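Catalogue entry: protein

Sequence with per-residue tokens
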Amino acid sequence: MHGLGNDFVVLDARAAALPIGPDAAAAIGDRHRGVGCDQIIVMEPPGDDADVFMRIRNPDGSEAGACGNATRCVASLVAAELGRPEIMVRTISGDLACTVHADGSVTALMGVPKTEWHDVPLAHVHDTLHLPLQRGPLADPAAVSMGNPHATFFVADVDRIPLGDLGPGLEHDPIFPQRANIGVVQVVARDHIRLRVWERGAGLTLACGSGACAALVNAARRGLTDRRAAVDLPGGRLMIEWRDDGQVAMTGPVATAFRGMLDLNALRG
């Protein structure tokens, strides 16, 4: 499945456990020798008060705490199974309420952003609106946690930033003890921004849902935008709203590329 080209292998482990550890995830995520994807998503039994548990692994095998586009994809699957539009998706970072709309788009409430330095987290006490971090033309980012750490740089033109070259060093900078997703944002208008993302553990992506939420939150915190904006990514547009109750709502499309069976033993061979 994918959301704006941010693509996932979604595995169903609700009836029986699947041995998807770091090595298996890396093998599946390999675009040359595996299936290939930005993240591997495993649907697991949710426990009480949720409809599904969603586990997220990056192609390098690491586990992620949040993925907005994948949340929408999983919500659309479960909503079709249950025959109702309201779905609660559980993750290691919290429960995310989702609504599937008549046009097939999905809104996911991505939680309340965390802006304290220790919640991002950062390695030391810093003002999360202005981090002392610079690489090439990028400087002075804002940081926030959307269930995973994000740093947002504001630039005049996102297309002129060599994010593929700068992203790895920024992701692994010592200021981020758990690494970070790196976003570059161009403010077009108070209700319109452009965004490119280097995703922690995955690299450049066509879209990043939690990154879009982080971009809008950090832009609004700096007074550059209103609290609702269209976010244009290389793969398409998401609508992001930082609501008055503190929740960040993300709305966008989902799509199924194909369904099939995967032989994990053959893949490891």
